[in-house]
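Per-record layout

source: Zootermopsis nevadensis
name: Ionotropic glutamate receptor C-terminal domain-containing protein
length: 671
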Amino acid sequence: MKLVTLLLFVAQVMAQANLPTAKHRQLLLCTVSVIRRYIAEGHPLVLSAPDEVFPWDEMNTLDETRNLTSELLEDLHKVERWPVYILYERTTVSFEEIYASRKYKSYVIITQNIRSDINSLIKCISSQVRRLQEIEAGNPEGVYLVVLLNAGEVDREMIIKVFSILWEWKVLDVIVITESLSRQSGITDLKTKVDLFSWFHFQYPRHCTHVTDIVLMDQWENGAFVKNADLFPKKITRNLNQCPLVASTISWGDLVIASNESDSGSTEPRVAYKDGLEVILYHTIAEAFNMTTAFIDPIPSHDNIWGDFSSADNTYTGVIGDAKFGRSNVSFCGLAKNFFFEMHVDSTHSYLESGFNWYVQCARPRPRWRVFVRTFTLSVWAALIVSFFAVVIVVWRIAKFPDERQETAQYRSFVGTFQAVLAVLLNIGVSRMPLTLFLRGFFCVWIWSCFALTTVFQTYFTSFLVDPGLEHQVSDVEELLASDLVLTFDNGYLDLFKYEEEREKQIISRWISCPGFEACSRRTATIGDAATVLDFQEFDYYKHKFVDENGDSLLCRLPGKISGYLITMFMQKGNPLFRPVNDVILRIMEAGLVNFWWSLIVERQKFTRNPETEDTPITFFVFSMSHLYVAFTFLVVGCGLSFLVFILELLCNFVHITKSRNIYPAEVTAY
């Protein structure tokens, strides 16, 4: 009798041990069936189970959850289609440190048993989702299955709360699985139904991203689905019912052009963005999905114009931070596709190629007063001066040989010969021609030479008065580093010179910070004592902003690109709009619309920033008095020297006459 009693007791204990698994058998079969249907073979499957235990029901909760988890693992391993990993809440070692990183993981979340503390359940689910996001944040390809135990405690508000928690991480493809019947006995029979719930966002303009309702997608009954419906239909369509597509951006050259608008109820203007390549692209994307556009102001940043990241408290400001934490759907302002950004956000297809270059002040026109010196090179001027004095000496010596009495007194004196040769050089007639045949022949050769020389001089002199040419400009990076120009650019570009090369070290040692791109460009273009770094799009903006009196740009690009990059938009990891937006951008690129829009914007902004006025240069050249002031300056100087020489001659003659009277008074009187 005692033996029979002992056997019955052992059988009851064993039955109690298997009870949690038996009563949730239909729930397990339904979960395995969903996994088999929707998770592709070979893709990792992560099973998340809580290890927190309620103090009032410790053993029952722990056993029920563990037995359910164990049997689900057993059923999944029998299928042999996926690598299956299990992650407990209190696991201290990172999942990626144990298993190789493989994309497109799918997740099954088994919640702890529900008794009365719903807040603790929600907290546990939130913790589980957060741990799964640490494995692969915002996995757009994976699916989530949330298994809720104890159907009698599950209500509609609890399921809505579960969806809301998952939507905080932009998880959309979620199915909540729960039993639909209350169990009177300890073991569930085959008639137990299992409900499968989901939700759809972007259904109503006022509740686009708020979980307000749930949808019963299908039911599991008698080992099969009742409707056999698609549990993960396409939820992002081309009609999102005028829901807002929130964008975070700042003014950025011709990519994002800001305009101030005033609201009817506010006197302060607000910044709006209606033009620019990326703004046009953004409006096109919103139109493609029947969404409205909405801009937000990014959280101000300090060191980096696109956003400052703090690893200590996991904060990110700027447009990157808005995308990372879901404050915006898309972020753009000439953002570069790079590894650091993509650690926090996802990048769309790149739609524009850009790069960084050094920019210096363009060569300025030479002063017109220097055109006289520039007419000939230094060697030509030197040869001309030497030739002039050589001709003076030769003429003077010929006039004195063999008989100086045969030549006039002007050519027998060195000063007279100097004056005659100089007059011919200046295309001025001499007072008296030489008398001897040999001297006349040599003098004619000098006249012909001077005529040819002055013709060339006048041609060049006139052309240089019209266009004096440009001064020397820094032509490459080596010449820039050898010059005394200040190197100034925005702090965000410091990473371009982070390599331990000699050139980068020299650049950083000479770098001076400036308050923004416009300040750097203004100093470089107007003052000309600095060089700055800009990307192609910023240059396209400032080259029309800083121009000279003829409308030519004051900024010039040095050859040799510092670094090239691709411009893209950024979105939060896992944002369900990512793939549809990417498809629209790709189609726009394939249609060639980006290049077309960019050419229109550049031309439009060129005329906007430089409207035509009466002073606008015209296609032909008008030779005005302003171009001749140098010639008149030389004329005035020449006349002044001539007048001075005339006065000196008068004084010399007066002194000579006075001396003659003192020496020969009688002779002078008789004369």
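summary: Residues 628-670 form one domain. Residues 353 and 566 are 5 Å apart (CA to CA).
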